[in-house]
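Methods — Computational structure assignment.
A single polypeptide chain was analysed. Its primary sequence is given first, followed by the predicted tertiary structure written as structure tokens.
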Amino acid sequence: MLTVNAYGATSPTEPLAPITIQRRDVGTHDVFIEIKYAGICHTDIHKVRGELPGSTYPFVPGHEITGIVTEIGSAVGKHAVGDRVGVGCMVNSCRECAACRAGKEQYCRKGSIQTYLSTDADGSTTQGGYSTHIVVNEDFVLSIPAGIGLDEAAPLLCAGITGYSPLNRFGAGPGKRVAVAGLGGIGHVAVKLAHAMGAEVSVLSQSLKKLEDGVRLGADHYYATSDADVFRALTGTFDLIVNTISAEIDLRSYLSILAPEGVLANVGVTLKPVPLRTVQLIGGGQSIAGSLIGGIAETQQMLDFCAEHGLGAEIEVISADKINEAYERVLSSDVRYRFVIDVASLR
């Protein structure tokens, strides 16, 4: 076992603080990674503050991880010492169920092993990327292409694949009208991706305060949804809406702006039930879908696509002692668009 420095949560009410954790010895199929950067995801904050089930303390959050391979197990064939690599939201799965066999490990019927706060194969609790090193099975380690910086690549391992997967699944591309609802950590990458795929891209945001950013990121159109006239003007417009908003929305309004057989794909998490009349779906042949990150193969496809098109996340790099401040700024929407921890500050 190796003791490494980390920044972790000791309770739902205390600030994160420096701690040390144990990493397992490198097994035959394991990759030992020196972490360079770790993105801050809104889920990290929910978990740290006990707002989602499953938090046990102390623990180390972080599932947007990039770094360099420093050691490999004797049977590893996918990665080599010195490789630029990343780790996202999963570090293993059952490998046996239909979802896993189809390369959709995020939907593992037995439950994929999450990068933190999951029970690992050896019975230990997984610990995340706000740390100097991590040991991961080679099959869940991704290659970071040379065309992307390790810092701007880190948020792609969660925010990036979360936006990419529904765009890929529902055929965003030339001739398609795609809207991204919400211009935040996920939404800003989704706009870049949809634009690079060749779609006509619109941003649906509560106000116009990020209009300049939206256009710079690749949006062809930008609409303020606080204006009731917007929904009337856009009736029947979009082939696909990727909803990144983690709050209740008026589903009827968003369905009204879908084209016939259009799809409202939801990636933003809400826990309250929402009213829906199925007649509205039937009348236009429309669909409501959900999407959860992506499988390992699709995540690698996304990274390769980003490198090919020169895409990365819009980031603000911080030192570890600024994590608590960054959490507060995320909650007040004071970041454009993702905080990334320089893990060198933990050493």
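Note: The radius of gyration is 20 Å.
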